[in-house]
Specification:
Length: about 450
């Protein structure tokens, strides 16, 4: 019963985190708040760092990626670093720079598809807008602020079936023509999107001396809150489970990490579009941070050789209506523990050593685990795991919580799996012995 109570509390906190994090910028903002509350000290990349063993730190880049770490007492070159990686972004619809579209008296917004979006679920939903604003102050300084309309301000209506009788058999969606949302009725010379944005900005940030909005990164998101589903409440349904669930579990585990060894959490942006950015896993954020944590070059090389990364990103749970889309021996079931993801072509970075270490850790902690290999006749997705391994040389494992409807506007996972994931990441951070084989 004690575990059930802890599981329920973790899920409540997870759902609050999801609701407060409609964009990567908001997710990092929420992570920062929780880290500060737990005594983590913020570092700035543009400043010199003076680090002390036993202390806890975090640093962010682009307001959308974050690294948090506990600098352990043990020599870092010998003990290595226990690293957990996840990503803050999710597939969505981004507002274009000049989005105003007026047709038949309706103001619509031109939007661009970000990542591999399942478009059908975006129709007929209550949508809001959130993101980051870059503005010029009255003193000609450039600043950034977050913005969140919170209320339902947009909708993408479906075409009535009477006007498209074949819709259920062969509907296709043109992302340029069919997905611009309606935000209001208007007349020529009425409010533009920039007018609406400026008004919302001033409502949210009454202290800001804004002279002009210079640019923005604004996304649409569904306002429906995440919730427990099923007669036994065995499922969680919500937006952005991929991959904020992993960010949240990693943070919760890091908050309980001991100071005996060094532990690190990295949550990168831009995974859904390839990671090739300054804030993405293909960029230098992690590498440069490790160089500052361990400035001696020889010690850093020894540290990397003694370290391990768990790349944590959601896995495909076997769908009961589409069972033939999985390999018969590798169909993960919801609520049966985290999934080891394997791919012979290195789309996942797991190997026998890293997966063997994880299996032993799970067995010792009495946590169930599963494995996933995609069908041999289907393409396999990827994660930050192979990218981070390539950039740093760290031994890497790819794992994740099994999920339905990945990349949909509303995804589903088992309500028991977040707690399993949190527990195994906590065990990983607490592990004081060698990470992997020693021979």
């Amino acid at each position: 019963m004690a575990n059930k109570a802890k599981e329920g509390q973790l899920n409540k906190n997870l759902m609050r985190f999801l609701q407060a994090s409609p964009t990567p910028f908001h997710a990092v903002h929420e992570l920062k708040k929780r880290l500060r509350d737990a005594g983590f000290l913020q570092l700035q990349e543009r400043e010199s760092w003076t680090l002390a063993k036993g202390e806890r730190y975090f640093v962010s880049r682009n307001d959308s990626s974050i690294i948090a770490f506990v600098l352990g007492e043990a020599p870092i070159g010998e003990a290595g670093i226990r690293m957990v990686g996840a990503h803050t972004d999710s597939p969505c619809l981004r507002v274009k720079p000049r989005p105003d579209l007026v047709k038949f008296g309706y103001l619509q917004l031109g939007v661009e598809v970000y990542g591999g979006v399942l478009l059908n679920p975006w129709f007929d939903r209550d949508l809001s807008l959130a993101g980051r604003i870059t503005y010029r102050s009255e003193e000609n300084r450039i600043s950034n602020r977050l913005i969140n309309f919170t209320d339902a301000v947009a909708i993408i209506p479906s075409l009535a079936i009477h006007l498209d009788r074949d819709v259920n058999a062969k509907r296709s969606i043109n992302s340029q023509k069919h997905i611009p949302p309606i935000v209001m009725q208007t007349e020529d010379g009425g409010d533009s999107f920039m007018d609406l944005l400026l008004r919302q900005f001033r409502n949210e940030h009454k202290d800001a001396d804004i002279a002009e909005i210079l640019n923005y990164e604004i996304s649409l998101y569904p306002i429906e809150a995440p919730g427990l589903i099923g007669f036994k409440k065995e499922f969680i349904a919500g937006a952005r489970l991929d991959n904020l669930l992993s960010c949240f579990a990693g943070m919760c585990a890091l908050l309980e990490a001991p100071t005996s060894v060094t532990s690190l959490l990295i949550c990168n942006d831009h995974e859904e579009v390839g990671s090739a950015t300054a804030a993405g896993a293909h960029g230098p954020f992690l590498k440069s941070t490790l160089q500052r944590v361990c400035p001696d070059s020889d010690e850093l090389h020894r540290c990397i050789a003694s370290s391990m990364l768990f790349s944590v990103d959601n896995a495909h749970g076997i769908h009961p209506n589409f069972g033939d889309k999985h390999d018969a021996n590798h169909g993960p079931i919801l609520n049966q523990g985290p999934v080891i993801k394997v791919n012979a072509n290195q789309r996942y970075a797991s190997n026998s050593e890293t997966s063997g270490f994880f299996q032993l850790l799970c067995q010792q902690a009495q946590i169930p685990f599963q494995s996933f290999v995609t069908r041999s006749d289907m393409a396999c997705g990827s994660t930050i795991g192979p990218i981070t391994a390539t950039e740093t040389g760290v031994r890497t494992l790819d794992i994740g919580v099994p999920t339905f409807a990945m990349h949909s506007l509303r995804e589903t996972c088992g309500s028991g799996d977040p707690h399993f994931l949190y527990r195994i990441l906590k065990e990983f951070y607490r592990h004081e012995g060698p990470l992997g084989a020693t021979d």
